[in-house]
Amino acid sequence: MSFLDGLMGKGGAGGADALGGVQELIESQGGVQGLTQKLGASGLGDLASSWIGKGGNLPISAEQIEGVLGSGPIGDFAKRLGVSPQQAAGMVAMALPMIIDKLTPDGDAANAKSGVDAGDLLGGLLGGGGGLGGLLGGMLKK
Fold first, then answer.
1. CA 21 to CA 61: how far, in whole Å?
2. What is the 3-state secondary structure (H, E, C) of 46-69?
3. Is the whole-model pTM more than 0.85?
């Protein structure tokens, strides 16, 4: 299953469900601030800072996600979506920078939004010409 399949609802998981799962992962790590602290402690603070700050978001790999979050949370997310843990980690790696960016519009992890509706988040991420919407649009044209 590809990231696009998982996000758009193939394989039994809707886009809002996948994004809701990523939001649950964030909350289980202490919210945006707790997750960014974990990333920093793992030597990935520059990545997290790029997602929170203004400007482009640096990518994170599935392996880095697994290293920071551990197999338990990734396994739970994989079960929720009906995919392998490796696929789940890849989906989280693709979505996490954009979700953190969306949750921190003021560039401040301490004041990150919480409880954002996954459907609204999906609409925001898919809307417009850039970010995830631009990525998916480009994939659909091929």
1. 18
2. HHHHHHHCCCCCCCCCHHHHHHHH
3. no
∠ CA(96), CA(103), CA(80), 5° rounding?
45
The whole-angstrom separation of Cα 14 and Cα 21 is 11
Q: Which helix (H) or strand (E) holds 99?
A: helix 85-103
Asked if 52 contacts 101 with a C-beta cutoff of 8 angstroms, the reply is yes
pLDDT digits (tens, 9 = 90+) for 96-141: 998 898 888 888 777 777 655 555 555 555 554 444 444 443 433 4
Q: Which amino acid is at 16?
A: A
Cα dihedral sign, 98-135-128-137: negative
Q: How far apart are CA 51 and CA 100, in angstroms?
A: 6
Neighbours of 79 (CB within 10 A): 12
Residue 5: count other Cβ atoms within 10 Å of its Cβ: 16
